[in-house]
Amino acid sequence: MSAIDRNINLDSLYRQVIMDHYKNPRHRGHMDEDSDITVNMNNPTCGDRIQLQLKVKDGIVTDVMFDGDGCSISMSSASMMCQAIKGLEVEKALKLAEIFSKMMQGEEYDDSDIDLGDIEALAGVAKFPARIKCATLCWKAMEKGLSNQPS
């Protein structure tokens, strides 16, 4: 198999992962109980909007939910992010957001102590500058919500 064929297969796999999160989002909805943190954000250039709810106890993200409207990249990214940060220490969730931002900018990043999981499927978004804001909307909401939390 040539390098080109491997890249095509990898791109296809990544598209499947993104579409799976879009069609079957994880952590989508509203918390039954009041959340500790609620952040509403939107991307006026494309119309994506998100509401992120977080529960934090003893410096750990114990629950996270999102709702909103947007493109497949925006909603998939929110699903992946919520899945990844639930159970993480606030400090580690913010570190993950930093890594994700670097990934979207095409910069080098060190993910040796954090498992990116499905999030890695979004790496290709960096090739499309107009879509980066779609992918980062939920991450910006998470950073805003957690930035003042004790770690």
Task: Note down, in words, how this protein is organized.
This protein is an alpha+beta fold. It has one domain: Sufe protein. Chain: A. Helix content is 45%, strand content 18%. The protein has helices at 3-23, 72-85, 90-104, 129-146; strands spanning 37-43, 48-57, 60-69. It has a 3-stranded antiparallel β-sheet with strand order 1-2-3, covered by helices on one side. Strand 2 (48-57) and strand 3 (60-69) form a beta hairpin. Helix 2 packs parallel to helix 4 and helix 3 packs antiparallel against helix 4 (129-146). The longest helix has 21 residues, at 3-23. It is globular, with a radius of gyration of 15 Å.
Radius of gyration: 15 Å
State the helical fraction.
Answer: 40-55%
Question: What's the total helix number?
Answer: 4
- Strands of the largest sheet, in order across it? 1-2-3
The computed structural class is alpha+beta
N-to-C span: 47 Å
Oligomer: single chain
- What count of domains describes the coordinates? 1
CATH architecture level-2 label: Alpha-Beta Complex
CATH topology type: Sufe protein. Chain: A
Number of strands: 3
- Which percent range describes the beta-strand content? 15-25%
Characterize the biggest β-sheet: 3 strands, antiparallel
InterPro entries: NIF_FeS_clus_asmbl_NifU_N
Organism: Calidifontibacillus erzurumensis
Pfam family, one: NifU_N
GO biological process, one term: iron-sulfur cluster assembly
